[in-house]
Amino acid sequence: MQSVVDRPLQGLRVLVTRPAHQARGQIEQLQALGAEPIALPLLEIVEVDESDAAAFHNIKARILDIDLYAGVIFVSPNAARIGARWIDEYWPQLPVGVHWLAIGAATAGVLAELDIPAYHVAGGFDSEALLADPLLQHIAGQRFLIIRGEGGRELLAQTLSARGASIDYADLYRRECPQYSSEQIKSTIYAQRLSVILITSGEALENLLELAGPVPDLLSTELIVPSRRIAGIAEARGFSRIRIADGPDDTSMIRAIRPAD
């Protein structure tokens, strides 16, 4: 029989909100620690395809010209996964002279698995960390391609532009709010009290409130977020028990959960 030490999260019901294709690792870690993970994906990743001709051809043009950029920046694991497929389609061999950059170790890890050797800032997981790196300080006159989803943060492009660089985007996917019935929301969130909610983006947080409503029981549930920026959004929206993890990766988010009393 496993002890409480082996299963420190025994008795906790933890809402897992990552997109469905990214949630498995977090769910398995929580189960191993004794928690009951409750899956409710709050973002759906929808890739741009040929049905959106203008967006599709814009991406294709950027990828065909990828050898003209000094650096290519992948902003997330989804951007890495989808972007690597686009690059592989048109570049059987990676072009030389391009710096491949990733925001966060998880993004770099996805690229490494797909044979793209990307640099990331050790211990950094956001745009701010990459922007502080010496590699991106003296870049006047250089061109960069940012590979991301539609409507992402503008800080990276704005800061690089202010330093004299030329910036293009390849918006490879959209983040949409999944559709759930009121019964699904009730049975997942309200039928039995949640212990903890794991949220890794401001957009996922807004989707949670749109789907479930700013109900006191929800707003008083412990919320784990990966950054002060998202903590600020949560506080402004009425959450009262917010903890900041060391980063957005599965291990950091789970480590921030307090064991059950």
From TrEMBL:
Keywords: Lyase, Porphyrin biosynthesis
Keyword Lyase: yes
Enzyme class label: lyase
Record pathway: Porphyrin-containing compound metabolism; protoporphyrin-IX biosynthesis; coproporphyrinogen-III from 5-aminolevulinate: step 3/4
Highest taxon above the source species: Bacteria
UniProt keyword DNA-binding present: no
Enzyme Commission numbers on file: 4.2.1.75
Swiss-Prot/TrEMBL catalytic activity: hydroxymethylbilane = uroporphyrinogen III + H2O
Cross-referenced InterPro entries: 4pyrrol_syn_uPrphyn_synt_sf, 4pyrrol_synth_uPrphyn_synth, UROS/Hem4
Tetrapyrrole biosynthesis uroporphyrinogen III synthase domain boundaries: 28-254
Gene Ontology biological process terms from the UniProt entry: protoporphyrinogen IX biosynthetic process; uroporphyrinogen III biosynthetic process
GO molecular function list: uroporphyrinogen-III synthase activity
Pfam families for the chain: HEM4 (PF02602)
Cited function: Catalyzes cyclization of the linear tetrapyrrole, hydroxymethylbilane, to the macrocyclic uroporphyrinogen III.
Family: Belongs to the uroporphyrinogen-III synthase family.
This protein's name: Uroporphyrinogen-III synthase
Source species taxonomy: Bacteria, Pseudomonadati, Pseudomonadota, Gammaproteobacteria, Oceanospirillales
